[in-house]
Amino acid sequence: MGLLSDLFKRKDDEMLELPVEGEQMQQVMVRIETLRDFVDIDRIARLVKEGNIVFLKTRDLQRKDLGEFQNCMQKLKRVSNQFGFDLAGTEEGYLVVTPTFAKIAR
Question: How many helices and strands (H and E) does the chain possess?
Answer without folding.
Answer: 4, 4
